[in-house]
Amino acid sequence: MSKLLDPKVLMAIKDLSLSAKMTIDGFMNGINKSTVKGPGLEFSQYRSYQPGDDLRSLDWKMFARSDRYYIRESEVETNIAVRILIDASASMNHSDGDFTKIDYAKYLGASLAYLANLQGDAIGLYVLKNSGIFSMSPKQDYQHLARLFYQLEQINPDGKFTKPIHYKELFAGAQKRELLIFVTDLYQTDDEIIKLLDTLNTLRHEIVVFHVLSRNELDLDFKGYSTFEDLETGETIQIDQTKARANYKNKLNAYLEETRIKLLDRRIFYRTICTDEPLDQALRDFLKQRSKLRI
C-alpha cells in the first residue's frame, strides 16, 4: 500500500487537490477506465446474430468466411453522475489526535471526486448542515472539479444535522441511476439521517454510506479525560472510562450491527471507516459500486 493513502500523510498536505491527485495517481496505477460492451469504436469481440439486433452491426467479412451472421461488439466508456454528500453537523468536529472527522471526510470526498472525474463521470457536491444544504449539481470538467475542491475546503461543521427539506426534488436528477456517496458519522437524534436515506432510496439510485468513526470513540480511550461534551447539544457527562469501557464497547458493537442491518435491509452499501484507516478500501468500494451502474 502506498504511504500516500495514509491519512496522516494525506492531511499533512494542506492543498486538497494536490493530496487527492497524489492519492489517486498512486491508487490507479495500472487500473484502466471501466468499459462495457456496446456500440463504440474499439473492437471487443464477436457474438452470434440474434433476432432484433441492429443489422448495421453485422460483420459481412465474417459472413463471407463462415456463411454465418456475427455481430461486432465494441467497448465504450461508461459515464455516470456521482453525488458526494458530506455531513457537516457539529459532531463531525470530533477529533482524534491532530485531525477531525470532517478533515477525513474532506480528503475522502476529494479523492473520490478526483477518481470519478478521472473516469469521465460528472461529480456533484452536497454539504448538509443545520442551516440547510449547499449544492453543486453534477458536472464533468476540470474547472468544476477545482470549484468542488474549493467548496470542500470551506466546510465548517456547525449545529445539528440538516432539517428536512425537499430532498427528493434536490436529488432527483436525470432519469438514469446515479451513485450517491454519503460520508457521515451517523450522529442523529430522531432518525433524521435514516429518513434522508429512505427518501433517497425511493429514487432508485445506488447509495454508499461511509460511516466515519474515530479510534478514540471506538476504543473509548480519551487519555485521561472524564468529562465529555455533546458537540451538537452542549450537554456534558462524567465518565470513568476504565469502568465504562466494556459496557460501552458492547453497546457500540450492537449499535453498529443494528445500523448495518438497517441499511442492508434498504439495499444501501454500508461501511464503517476509522479516521486512522488508509483510503484504499474506500476507493475500492467506490469502484465496485460504480461498476453496478453500467447501463
UniProtKB/TrEMBL annotation:
Transmembrane segments: none annotated. Gene3D superfamilies: von Willebrand factor, type A domain. It comes from the Bacteria. InterPro entries: DUF58, vWFA_dom_sf. Residues 45-251 form the DUF58 domain. This is DUF58 domain-containing protein.
